[in-house]
Every structure is written in C-alpha cells, then in structure tokens.
Amino acid sequence: MLIFRSYAGPAVATFFISVFVLLMQFLWRYVDDLVGKGLEWHIIAKLLYYASFTFVPMALPLSILLASLMTFGNLGERYELVAIKAAGISLRKVMMPLIFLSVVLTAGAFFYSNTVFPYANLKFRTTLYDVRQKKLALNIREGMFYSGIEGYVMKIGKKAPDGVGIYDVVIYDHTDFMGNNKFTIADSGRMEQNANGDYLIITLFNGWNYEEMQGRDSEIKKPFQRTLFSEQVIKFDLTQFRLSRTNEEFFRNNFLMLSNKQLSEASDSISEDLLSRRKDFRTALLNYYEYLRTSQLLDSNSKAALPPKSGDILAGKNNRDKSMIVGAALGIARNVKQSFEFNKQAIRDKATLKAKYDIEWHRKFTLSIACLALFLIGAPLGAIIRKGGLGLPLVVSVLLFVVYHVISFTGEKAVKSGVMSAWKGMWISTIIFLPIGIWLSYKAATDSPLMESDSYKRFITNVLGFFRKKRSNNNEETGE
Q1: How wide is the angle at C-alpha 319 spanned by C-alphas 316 and 325, nearest 5°?
Q2: Residues 6+ apart with CB under 8 A from 151
Q3: I need a labelling partner for 87 at 20 to 30 A (CA). Which of 398, 427, 458, 466 fits?
Q4: Residue 339: which H helix or E strand, with range?
C-alpha cells in the first residue's frame, strides 16, 4: 500500500497537469478562431471539454513516466529503498504491483482509444469546425468601414452615448454584384436589434439614395437616380452570425473517428481500390504503347498507309509533312504524359489516405504500449537519480517523452511518404524504448551496480583521472 499511495498521488496530479498543458497549447493554436466571435461560454466550455478527452492518450504515458520517476526518486532520496532491500525485499517485488497496474492501464488505454477517443474526437472536431466557420461578432466601430454583413459595406461617423443613435451614415449595397452602383447616405438614424436578435434594424433620417441605372447586358450607362427621404428603414439578416451546427455524419467516416475494426475495414477497401487503380493504369499505359507500336504513318498526299521503314522515317518528306508528323507525335506524347501524371497523383493520394488509416490503427496500440514501456524506463531511472519532487524528474521525463515522440513522429512521416510500412514506422519508438525499459528493470531487480549513482560518479572520476595522468606524462616527456 505504501508504494501505491506514493505512486497514485503523483500519477493523478501529473495526468491532470499534462492535460491542462495540452489544453493551453490548443488554446494558443486556435486563439484566432475563438476570439472576437461572441461565443457563448457554454460553447467554449463544451469545446474544451471534448478537447480534453482527445488529449488523454498522449497525457497518460507522460504522467506514468513522470509519476514513476518521482515515486522511486522519492523512495531513493529518503533511503526507503535501502530499508526495503535491507528487509529482504527485492526491487523486483517492489516494482511488481506497479508493473501489474501499468499493464491494467495499458489495456484500459487501448479500450479508451478504441471506443471513447473516436466519439470524443467526433464531437471535438465538429464543434471546432463550427466555431472556425462562425463569423466574427457584429462590431461596427465609429469612423471605420464595416463589411461583416454579407452584401453590404457601411460606415458610421459617430455613435450616441446610448449606443442606439448614429450619425453620418453611409451604406453601400452590393447585393446585386454590380459594384458601388447603389448606396445610401443619411445625417442620422437609429441602430437596434429585434427581440430575438435575428435582424439588425437601422432607421435612417434625412438622407439620399443614389443608384446608377445600368442594365446587366448593356454597356451604356444610364443617368443616376437620386431619391430624397425623410425616414427609411433597412433590415439586415443576422442569422449568419449564429453558430450553425454541422451534421456529424459528414465527419463520421474520417480516420480519426473510427474504431480499430472500422479502420481495418476502411483500409481493406482502399487497398482494393488502390490495386484496381494501379491495374487500370498499367493497362492504359500498355495500350498507349501498343497503339504507337502498331500504328503506321499516313502519307498526306496519297492518304495510303506506308510500309514501316527502318532508319529515319522522316527521310524524303517535305517540311509540311515533317511538321505534321512531328506535331502528331508530340500530341500523343503529351496525352500520355498528362494521363500518366494524373493517374500517378491519384494513386499517390489514395496511398497516402490508406497510410493515414493504417497509422491510426497502429497508433491505438502504440500509445497504449507506451504506458508500460515508459514505466519500465521511469521506475529504474528514478532509483538511479534518487531525487523526488518536480525538479530533476520533470526534466528527465520531458526529455525522454520528447525523444519518444520525435522518433514516433519521424516514423509516421516515413509511413505517409511511403518510405516505411505502417507497422515499422509506428512501432519503431516502442521497439527502441521497450527493450531498454526491460533491460533497466532487470538491472534494477538484480541489484546491478548500474543502478547505483555512486558507480557513475566513480566511473567519471576514473576517466577524468586517466586523462589527467596521461596529460601529465606527456608534459614530462616534452620537458614542460
């Protein structure tokens, strides 16, 4: 129970800290899409709520690594590990309950990634898409042109202190897509919204309407039409500023919103389509070359087929015939090249899409196994470092986590570019870290000198002493 209590506190605390840090990174990344749109607090809260669930698969391995480092660092710093070993309990027995807990967390992480994560990602991505598509909130400032309302550009010279009265109003009407051929000016007016906020109602006083009378099919401009008014009401639709909710079905087939079974089925379908495209592409190219091999050039004068010739097939042709023959050959070559480039790009895009599905399928396993691999590295390193708290363990854990994800990201990029297969690129970080963790755990369980920090100090001291001695011998030989 002592080990569990020592481990549970740091694990829970670092997990929530990691999620919070990732949330702050998300806000920093999308701050331009959230600010100035008049979003209700519950929309932002819902977005952050769903986003926090999508960060769990990344935050959990980091929290396990940091918690294991802190736990065994604290035990080593307070000499509790020494007392446990003196009581005849090996470090292997001390680590075994936490290894079992890590295995359980690994299974739970896979279940979470396969069931909860796709649903949370669907909600998060659709909400984020709607927020990013929402227009900026209505904010008409004094003395500045405002074009946020679709089809209109307006400028208000001055606003009254009550926020309703307006003065020196200019409104350009672009709803007919004919340029600045219709506009309104007024000395004063009132600007207010209706009860449910669906419309902005501007009532203008003492102004003029100007319109350039011009037909759509005529280039002859007709005279201006100028109309004086003492009062005029213009109504603007504000429903475009509301947050419209997108149908989630449009995003449901995205690779980030699928379980492993669905990802596997989708990848198989893409593979069949990819094989079919490659087969059709190969057949089309062979047909092009077969046509070139069997075709015969026609004499422009007799219109009769000429027998195939060896050597220069343009020999004996006049310049006009040569030009026609070369032009026809170049046309065929261009068609073949365009067809080749189009089909190659289509096949490449399809292969990249398949790689994304395969990457996501493997990611659900690798992020889960990372919980066990990083624990097996963190616990022995904590016993080596013998430092608790959030100082040195935090630095070491962040460094290891960054290295792990750099390797993972490099492998993922290699898979997307077609350099590696999906299982190699996605499992390369686990293949590197898991054996290291098992080796470190074995060394810790067998009380190897590797686990004693004093042995490293002695090794460094001996190396430095060797170089000092060698340097002094060289100085004696040279007589310095």
Answers
A1: 80
A2: 173, 174, 175
A3: 458
A4: helix 319-385
